[in-house]
Amino acid sequence: MNISNRLTPRYFTLILSFMTLFLLFTHTPTDITTDSFDDSIFEASCSCKTCIMDFMDDDWFVYRYDPTITPLLNRKNSALRRDTYKWWRGLQPSSLRVNYTEVVDQMFSLFPDKDHYADTSPDRCRTCAVVGNSANLLGSHYGSLIDFHDVVIRINKGPTKGYERDVGSKTTHRILYPESAVDLDNNTHLVLFPFKIRDMQWLISTFTTGHITRTYTRVKSSIKADENKVMILHPAFIKYVYEKWLLRHGRYPSTGFITIIFALHICDQVNVFGFGASSTGTWHHYFDRSRTHFKGGPHGGDFENKTLHKLQQRNKIIIHKGYR
Ligand code: C5P
């Protein structure tokens, strides 16, 4: 009895030491860290080396980026909040009285009525090139780099023919509106940027009767494009870009800026080409000598540029500077 009483504290110390050593060797600090967190925090959001949705702890990005917003319209998501409808109708006001719901119905009896790009997955690595129309592309030799992307989004009239070495030849998407429309090949998605209901009516007309030849200016009555590849930017998405990303600078986003935010929502990696002035400070197109005015006009050009540079600093996009 006495002996066992004397031994108990020693045995107790011995057992404690064993237990400590066991815990130390079987449960290293790294294990403890990993086990005590939810695995999903560390799960990559895509299978590219870097993903847009990585590091969602960045307050600046998280404040602006709404992963739940749907960039493209379909019948199911077409209802607009009263304030959205009012804001959108105010962009390019018209005295014509048109029923939005009827126009949406007509559009989606012609064009794919789908939940586009609801396919985010840790196994997906969708690389996208957004190609703006800046003359800084000339002499850049970016053509093959641009074509290497899964998705190549071009804007308005930006041509490829004759400029392949610098801008590439592949186009999977082209963002346009009636006044900037051009013919597309059968591999290209026409993505309408609707500033007004008349633009949606023009889209219907261009694939059917061809009766709309004017908006605020003359427009093409018909264009070549595959109607099974038509998509329409959602008016609520346009307002989201204006409010969240541009903090209401300018009157509405430029086509180039909205295209980059669109890419952030449908791609895992975004490379940007053909944005910005050329080294001489001029804002020419690569395909004509017309000057573009990004500082004035309806767009918050300076603010857009600053926002793009912040996106680059945060590794959400890479801006390829161009040559000239
Ligand atoms: O002139 P356009 O609007 O067709 O150009 C498409 C987009 O390309 C613009 O919205 C702008 O973002 C970008 N661009 C640019 N610098 C230029 C010309 C165009 O950043 N010199």
TrEMBL record:
Enzyme kind, highest EC tier: transferase
Binding-site residues for substrate, renumbered to this chain: 92, 133, 156, 216, 252, 256, 276, 285, 299
Topological category with respect to the lipid bilayer: Single-pass type II membrane protein
GO MF term set: beta-D-galactosyl-(1->3)-N-acetyl-beta-D-galactosaminide alpha-2,3- sialyltransferase; beta-galactoside (CMP) alpha-2,3-sialyltransferase activity
Record-level GO cellular component terms: extracellular region; Golgi cisterna membrane
Primary site of residence: Golgi
One Pfam entry name: Glyco_transf_29
GO biological process, one term: lipid metabolic process
Entries under InterPro entries matching the protein: Beta-gal_alpha2-3_sialyltrans, Glyco_trans_29, GT29-like_sf, Sialyl_trans
EC number from the UniProt entry: 2.4.3.2, 2.4.3.4
Localization terms from the record: Golgi apparatus, Golgi stack membrane; Secreted
Pathway(s) annotated for this protein in UniProt: Glycolipid biosynthesis; Protein modification; protein glycosylation
Transmembrane segments: none
Signal peptide: 1-34
Intrachain disulfide bonds: 128-267
Catalysed reactions, as listed in the record: a globoside GalGb4Cer + CMP-N-acetyl-beta-neuraminate = a globoside MSGG + CMP + H(+); a ganglioside GA1 (d18:1(4E)) + CMP-N-acetyl-beta-neuraminate = a ganglioside GM1b (d18:1(4E)) + CMP + H(+); a beta-D-galactosyl-(1->3)-N-acetyl-alpha-D-galactosaminyl derivative + CMP-N-acetyl-beta-neuraminate = an N-acetyl-alpha-neuraminyl-(2->3)-beta-D-galactosyl-(1->3)-N-acetyl-alpha-D-galactosaminyl derivative + CMP + H(+); ganglioside GM1 (d18:1(4E)/18:0) + CMP-N-acetyl-beta-neuraminate = ganglioside GD1a (18:1(4E)/18:0) + CMP + H(+)
CDD domains assigned: GT29_ST3GAL1_2
Quaternary state and interactors: Homodimer; disulfide-linked. Homodimer formation occurs in the endoplasmic reticulum.
PANTHER family: ALPHA-2,3-SIALYLTRANSFERASE ST3GAL I ISOFORM X1 (PTHR46032), CMP-N-ACETYLNEURAMINATE-BETA-GALACTOSAMIDE-ALPHA-2,3-SIALYLTRANSFERASE 1 (PTHR46032:SF6)
Family named by the database record: Belongs to the glycosyltransferase 29 family.
Protein name (Swiss-Prot/TrEMBL): CMP-N-acetylneuraminate-beta-galactosamide-alpha-2,3-sialyltransferase 1
Organism: Cirrhinus molitorella (mud carp)
